[in-house]
């Protein structure tokens, strides 16, 4: 009997082994075939045709709509950045809910039939605030970002220990849809060229994700960038746009990766705008022609961007080459899908190219989301910033002999107000000077509540002030977004150095961190005690001040675009949601995108405007049914 039982158990084990072996033969795999210069998906050659989409720039409500349009264009893959600071704005506090629910986004992509190329950074660039790095890193004044600096590496390790375990179940080889993962981003463009840092990242990614996932790097199409940005064990890819010789670009990739698939990780379908620039446009015919050339070579391609979306709130980045230039609120990017997710002629042209290489899903392209022109709304003045400090700075001021930065006060985004008194009578206009270019980024100067002018980083370092000894001088500092690319990403904000008034160094500051978003989220100024200021005067309303109004949607909650004609520069909130910055005086962007889901069909929609320089006497704003992103840059 014992012998029979043993034989039975052996037979069962052999049967289970055979079943497991059969299951193993159908195991999902994604790998690189170096012999045949291609990717292998489940053992078969695979070419991805991908488009970039940023969940952080699109309301959650619209994620599915955008993904379906990408799928119907013929894409089989999407590429996604993970902005570290979007999920850990405060050190140690991680947010993956609602519009930050990355796993829900991945699930929607999976349901739609799209694979994913994940780019988790920790640095992403993306014209995003500080390239995705959290500003709290700058509390370490000597930190060397994107290097093996101990403080930086520890923070990165802590973050990846949270993020990567969340991503592991979503790997294609584990049943998910992530086929490849980028380590860092365009590291060869950064001055540090620290291979120990890249080795540390490689170790972290392997530890948390395993040995089988395909890890890669992306770098610009130069020898120097590829030399510093690549590392053994990370597959090297390149990026380039429509003005590049495709064969030459891939020949350069071949010098760093002699075998394996050709990959353009960022094929530029458009480009970004800075305030004061002309609106960037990339020719559709060029995009189609170069895309066809790339695909004909059997190369893999990701189109950057496929939909750009919007830099809501304070999430726009900035560049600093010869001077500081802030990225506009719209990230429309002249992409195949507009900022509002609408199909364009460029999208249809791209679909026609893709049809030559793979079967495109049958059926109609989902239409543009409906738009509505709600018309004019007249606002009323709530009060100057200096008059509402109790509401927007509930903790009151921090006292300091000399100015402190945003980072020192843990006020990472938005605005702070610096207050002092005039040290002497100034009957004649007296220069207020930022001698070390220490205003980051714009300073709006008032004396006893009267606006006197502004200072601006790199471009306006002197202005004149008048007043009497003991008068209150308020300097509202605007953080216009941290540098997201290059060697100057250690971009501190606020007053970084002393200001000099005449011959006096200004001291004895009261510094107010402003929680404007918190106050508005709590219902201010539309609820609670407030007194509006009559706007009967015909003159322009000068200086930093808040304005409010309401929009009646008449039962329609459709996308719309807000135009602030003759307003100068500022920030807008709708129903407590920060839409981003406006600056029609400088352009080129003239309208702000308002997603329909932000609007209520049953209640008045609360509009709050912070105008920084000067509101028009009419105090009207206009809700339109189309964007204006291409106005000629005007005066500042």
Mean pLDDT over the full residue set: 94
Coarse morphology: globular
Main sheet specs: 8 strands, parallel, barrel
| Helicity, as a percent range | 10-25%
| Amino-to-carboxy terminus distance | 96 Å
- Rg, Cα atoms, Å: 27 Å
What is the percentage of strand-forming residues?
25-35%
> Any low-confidence stretches, pLDDT <50, length ≥5?
1-25
Number of helices: 12
Derived structural class: alpha+beta
Q: Total strand count, please?
A: 36
Order of strands across the main sheet: 4-5-6-7-8-9-10-11
What does this structure look like?
The protein is of the alpha+beta class and 636 residues long. Helix content is 21%, strand content 27%. The protein has twelve helices and 36 strands. An eight-stranded parallel beta barrel has the order 4-5-6-7-8-9-10-11, surrounded by five helices. A six-stranded antiparallel beta sheet has the order 16-27-17-23-20-21, with no helix packed on it. Strands 15-29-34-31-32 form a five-stranded antiparallel beta sheet. Helix 2 (63-73) runs parallel beside helix 4 (102-112) and helix 5 (150-167) runs parallel beside helix 6 (195-209). The radius of gyration is 27 Å and the shape is globular.
Q: In terms of topology, how is this protein built?
A:
Elements: H1 2-25, E1 30-33, E2 38-41, E3 44-46, E4 49-53, H2 63-73, E5 77-81, H3 84-87, H4 102-112, E6 115-119, H5 150-167, E7 178-182, H6 195-209, E8 214-220, H7 223-229, E9 235-240, H8 246-256, E10 263-268, H9 284-296, E11 300-307, E12 318-320, E13 324-326, H10 345-354, E14 375-378, E15 380-384, H11 389-392, E16 398-400, E17 415-421, E18 426-433, E19 439-440, E20 442-447, E21 450-456, E22 462-467, E23 472-478, E24 494-495, E25 500-501, E26 504-505, E27 509-513, H12 516-521, E28 541-542, E29 545-551, E30 560-563, E31 570-574, E32 577-582, E33 591-594, E34 605-611, E35 614-615, E36 620-624
Parallel strand pairs: 4-5, 4-11, 5-6, 6-7, 7-8, 8-9, 9-10, 10-11
Antiparallel strand pairs: 1-2, 2-3, 12-13, 14-36, 15-29, 16-27, 17-23, 17-27, 18-22, 18-25, 19-24, 20-21, 20-23, 25-26, 28-35, 29-34, 30-33, 30-36, 31-32, 31-34
Helix pairs in contact: 2-4, 5-6, 9-10
